[in-house]
Amino acid sequence: MLETVVHPSPKKVGSLKKLFKKCKEQKELVLLSIPFVIYALIFYYAPLSGWLMAFQNYRPGRGIFEQEWVGLNNFKFLFSDPTFINVVRNTLAMSMINLVLGFIFSIGFALLLNEVRNKTVKKFMQTVSYLPHFLSWIIVTGIVMEVLSPETGIINQLLLVFGIIDTPINFFADPKYFWWIVGFANVWKSTGWGSIIYLAAMASINEELYEAASIDGANRLRKIWHVTLPGIKPTIFILLLINIGNILNAGFEVQYLLGNGLVQGVSQTIDIFVLKYGISLNNYSLATAAGIFNGIISLTLIFIANHLAKAAGEERLF
User: Fold this and answer.
1) Which residues 6+ apart lie within 8 Å of 260 measured at CB?
2) What does pTM read for this prediction?
3) Sign of CA dihedral 77, 81, 87, 89
4) Side-chain half-sphere CA neighbours of 47 within 13 A
5) Could you report the per-residue pLDDT of 52-79, keeping only the tens digit for each?
6) Cα(252)–Cα(95) distance, integer angstroms
7) What separation in angstroms does the CA of 165 have from each of 40, 170, 261?
8) E strands within the chain?
C-alpha cells in the first residue's frame, strides 16, 4: 500500500521562515516578552478551565471532573429567567450611556484643552481634571449622594432658587434618574483621564496643517473640524472598538453603592447578578454561566465592530 505524504505548501514554509527570521532579528524583544506571556498563560488562560463549572452542578469539596454534568441547563435557566433578562437590559443601557457620554466629554474636553495657549493654565487644568480618576468609588459615590441630597444637595438648592421645581427631588428614589446619575458619575471620574490619549494624538498632528489652514482663512472652529478631528480619527476608532468589547461591563461598584430597594429594578448589572444570585448563594455554576455569556458577547461585538471598521476603510484592531 502506498503511503501518501503530505508536504507543507511553499507559501506556509515561506511564512514560517519569515517569522523565525523576524524573531531572530528581534530576539531581545522576544526575550523581554517571555515573562509577560508566561504571566498571561498562568493568570488569564489557565483559569479558563473553571468554565467547566457552567456545565456542571458544581459542589465545593469535589474535584472539577467529579461533579454532576448538566449540559446547558444553567444557560437555559439564565435565558428563561426574567431577572437575568432585566439585568442584561440594565447593563446594556448603562454601558451605552457611559460609552456615548464618555466619548463626547473626553473628546470635547481634549479639544478645549488643546486650544489653551498658556502652558501654566493648561497644566493646571490637566492636573485638576485627572484627580477624580484616582479617587475610589466609595468617595465618588459619597460626593454624588451629597450633591444630589434632597435636603442639602446643591442640585436641589439650585433648582429651587431658579424656580424650576417647587419641592426637592429624591433622585435616589426614582428609577428614571438612576442610569443618568451613573452615567454622569462616570463622566466626572473619567473625563480628564480619558482625554490623555486624545491630547497625545493631537500633539502628533503636523503644525504645518494648522498654518496652511490659517493661510486659507480658517478660524479656530474650522481648524478643529478640518484638521484636529481628522487627525485623531484613527485614535477615536481604535478606542471605540475597544470600548464596544466592554459593552457588557457597565461596572459594579457605582451601581452597588448607589443602588437601593427603590431602584433595584434598574440598578442591577450582570456583575451584581453574579454576586447576588451566584456567589452569595453558592451557585457557582450559574455565576460561571453568566460570566461566559458576558465574555462571548463581548468577543462577538469586537469581531463585528472590527469587521465593520475594515469594510468602511477605517482603523481596526486586527
Assistant:
1) 172, 173, 267
2) 0.84
3) positive
4) 8
5) 999 998 888 788 788 889 989 999 999 9
6) 12
7) 54, 12, 25
8) 56-57, 68-69
